Please model this.
Amino acid sequence: MSKGITSKNDDYSQWYNDIVIKADLAEHSSVKGCMVIKPYGYSIWEKMQAVLDHKFKETGHSNAYFPLFIPKSYFSKEAAHVEGFATECAVVTHYRLKNDGNGNIVVDETAKLEEELIVRPTSETIIWNTYRGWIESYRDLPLLINQWANVVRWEMRTRLFLRTTEFLWQEGHTAHATSQEAVEETERMLDVYADFAENFMAVPVVKGKKTPTERFAGALDTYCIEALMQDGKALQAGTSHFLGQNFAKAFDVKFTSKEGKLEHVWATSWGVSTRLIGALIMAHSDDAGLVLPPKLAPIQVVIVPIYKGEEDLAKISTFVDVLMLKLKAMGISVKYDSRDSQRPGFKFAEYELKGVPIRLAIGGRDMENKTVELARRDTREKFTVPQEGLDIYIANLLNEIQENIYNKAYQFREEHITEANSYEEFKALLDDKTGFISAHWDGTAETEKQIKEETKATIRCIPLNNKQEDGVCIKTGKPSTQRVLFARAY
Amino acid sequence: MSKGITSKNDDYSQWYNDIVIKADLAEHSSVKGCMVIKPYGYSIWEKMQAVLDHKFKETGHSNAYFPLFIPKSYFSKEAAHVEGFATECAVVTHYRLKNDGNGNIVVDETAKLEEELIVRPTSETIIWNTYRGWIESYRDLPLLINQWANVVRWEMRTRLFLRTTEFLWQEGHTAHATSQEAVEETERMLDVYADFAENFMAVPVVKGKKTPTERFAGALDTYCIEALMQDGKALQAGTSHFLGQNFAKAFDVKFTSKEGKLEHVWATSWGVSTRLIGALIMAHSDDAGLVLPPKLAPIQVVIVPIYKGEEDLAKISTFVDVLMLKLKAMGISVKYDSRDSQRPGFKFAEYELKGVPIRLAIGGRDMENKTVELARRDTREKFTVPQEGLDIYIANLLNEIQENIYNKAYQFREEHITEANSYEEFKALLDDKTGFISAHWDGTAETEKQIKEETKATIRCIPLNNKQEDGVCIKTGKPSTQRVLFARAY
Model:
């Protein structure tokens, strides 16, 4: 069966799109820039949500829900924030439609809002306006809240999962008594994201800080995790912001300290989105389709019977039923596909396309030999395995696959961080799509901008605990004390 | 401690509002008609979601996600639907703000949408427009999909949880090959809702069908579950719609049947919302605050130590640590409140207000006697219980409380269904706030409308498996073959 997937060496962008569509993850909707997340894609998001939600709760956070709409004037209250977000957004101006008498449904001009409402692009403003009523004393702090929600940022050029007008995300918004506590929270949540990316998504990440130019609009410091895709482009997989007292001042949120002083509160915010599904696809998949790490695979094991008649099938099914009970008891998600409307070869191709980590095929001869045929999605190896102890074998193999997928991505990433010591070298590396480039930069926004304009490469981050070394900026030759990570990015 | 809750006999509406605010469930936001769901309120919603989501998956449904925005023209495609929903809705007309040069943020008139977008009030139109691409053959059916989402219906008069401009809900949208299968699905999901209301919310419900007037805009039949609140008013707690082929025809969704014929698909949709939290509050709570059924209580057991010094506390805590491990192992959520900033009496009042089903208080004398003091929230009884076997005692008591709360609500409901045999009797019963009124109706929309205008009572439903009996309409005296359930409603 031809799956109709473009080879990633021929056209990486088309390869990505083919996988999203053919593996039934998502599609463009008829509403410009908005996607439909299909059941299989959404089930990956549910897996991600479950893990992250557990981690947020473990670190003391509670979920809450704030309004979708934000009054226009709120955006003006934090100067940097409005520049960053108010420009491209969905504006609600009316609250009624009517029939114009000729059978057309039109906007009712008599139902115009006094103040326009913005569909939230992010919720700092509405949340800090609410926190003013929740915080009085140091006893109310820290306030540790997360929201799972949809947000809208008007995008002209969209790509499924990676950049869409509407997307799903979580946004944490916390309030603290001191700057230090807020910084600790910012770093704690960055670690949560890094742990999730590496140990669940199997995607190695570099933890770092953004340059002032790349900071979140309204933040004093933006921390990020940066991942590398197979085409050598970087992808920002999560951000955690130290907001200082900017929003507390803009929305007048003060607390009485233990010492009885009235002070502004310190803030953080942090978020990851359905963009992570894009990262997951691009980090591991191949020309045969999706490759999913077992910990986020909606189906971890699929079993396909190969049979000639009903009697044959009955024997296989009896064995499978017991195996499935054992696997489920270990928390392994398993599917038995005994449909008679499709041939085994078709099913093999389908589950390969969908990235199911382990496929078992069981035929009459396997039943006689007390074996099964097992295929690994990550290595595409097939081998024969005894039925005895199969449940334990599978549980161990899932761990091994998880590890292997991570190691492969880690090795790729390590091979794709290159040092450049001149601008010529830097540009040549970019042309070769070699991934992250570690280079000296003079620390000015101007140089950063020039490099971006000339090469489309941006500073992805200044890695945390970065090695200090004397050098000269690749662009200006001015002195520099550390290398930073450049790349072209999604 | 005065909790500042209005007595429900004095002012039921204010009592409800006081509980929502004082128990920290939700508050009005600064955006007209939109609420903020606070962490404690949201945690009840999470409990509800978990149970419902499991039930949906058990019955074969998958989650997916469709766009927030719906092009205006989609609403015109199903005639009844546009009348029902397009009138009061949030309309997005622009996609950019700009600085007007004087420091004001204004709508950028050059960024006007060609076609306005409606913030979804419900998603039938956008979903059926999408299903057209997903359904070709009978093999693609049934298509069983659910969405968890926010929706917006512009409301002039709002009440926390019960009626808000934005609310959270789930909406199931299914496609079937035959009318019969779609009707079966409609009824199956009604049963899921009824089971959830009765066995988790502890709220008895009447299952029935709406009259044509009260049907969902675009449905051939609307099934509902109707609950009775303590003030004698009814509350529609969930609906399940048989949509026939209306949306399939409006959006041209056809399939090739097994017999090779091209036919329109049959549809259902069904939903429950954060309104259920309002029902939960109103069905069980009292003047001391919220009463939560254990199965939906975020905290099922709270433990308050009564101690004089650190040594005292250490002894109690050692016992509590072991107890908590045992309770958690049984899946019971338990909180130990050993804060020294608040006195036990304050804590007692707080957890009573928040509806925690079981409260344990443990002091020095209890430790000597190997007992604890246990208080039930539902009956407000206190008694002394031996420490030995306490975990099993608590597990059993939680079940008993769940049952008791249901039985109390059931008894109340049974005592508040009254037959009326004349219009005078009917009106007198309404004035006495006696709950559901079972009465004969001539079956016409005109009579239904007159009764509603004159008494504010509506036909809540025609109960399923309704007893057939000859009678005469209370309003017109015309012949009738069955009684229907009337009530004033939320």
In short: Chain A touches chain B through 62 residues (CB under 8 Å). The longest strand of chain A covers residues 88-99. Chain A has 14 helices and 25 strands.
